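Let's practice the habit of predicting before peeking. Look at the sequence and jot down your guess about where helices and strands might fall. Then scroll down.
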Amino acid sequence: MRFLLLSLLVICSGSLAAQSLTGIWRGKRTQGPQGCFPEYFLELHITWSNETSIMGNAYSYVDNKQFTKVNFTGRYNPLNKRMVLTESAVLQYTVPANCIPCIKTYDLTWSKTGPQEVLLGDWTGHEMGNNNVCPPGKITLNREKVPTFPVDVYQSDTLLNLQKHLKLQNREKEVVQTVVIDTTAIKIELYDNAEIDDDTVSVFLNNSLLLHKKRLTDRPLTLQFSAFPNTEYELMMYAENLGRIPPNTALMVITAGKKRYEVRLSSSEQKSAVVKFKFTQ
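Done guessing? Here is the structure:
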């Protein structure tokens, strides 16, 4: 009996740890007196999650024309189903002149009743650009299938700021292959496809810079991202140079669940190689 109980505990712990939070979460966020509005809509796009870490962006909005978009990172404890998310860079905002966006910290707990998944909790924060405290409030979110706002690929603040100052040449895009995937977790590895000759590339996923001027070798450049259902993704390899032996060539190894794909890419000063992904359920 003790062995059986221990086995059940291990199985339950494993299922909690494997709980995927990636996806769209939408609902409402309240704010106390002296806030700009007493109630907002809130949409979280969790674009990456594993057993402990979470990344994505948040939209606080009154309507589609009055909103704030902010990156966040966070932690998840699968034992008590609690997550703490901390906002960082404000990516975009359109708010009334008398309002200042809040940089928020969320303290949320995941639960499930029947098919419906819910995040409940509180938030605190301070005004963007200063340390003035924002009136705190409550949060109620449900998992949704269709977003109100476009889904981005998560990008670090460093790469985001770097991309703002990039000056890329206008090159033709050549679609090499379209890969249909049926799982959320995608791993991409890039190797030099021939003789290692100092080929250097930058890689974009849905126009977001994820690798900048990285040299291709026999060791992989690795990217991982979480795909959203019914969403298309476009990965572009931009040649920063042509190495000693033109053109710039790479072997891309894609791991999607139990499936593995190999794609050979070639980029030049005239064209950039593109691989498209579509997650269908």
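How did you do? The longest helix spans residues 2-17.
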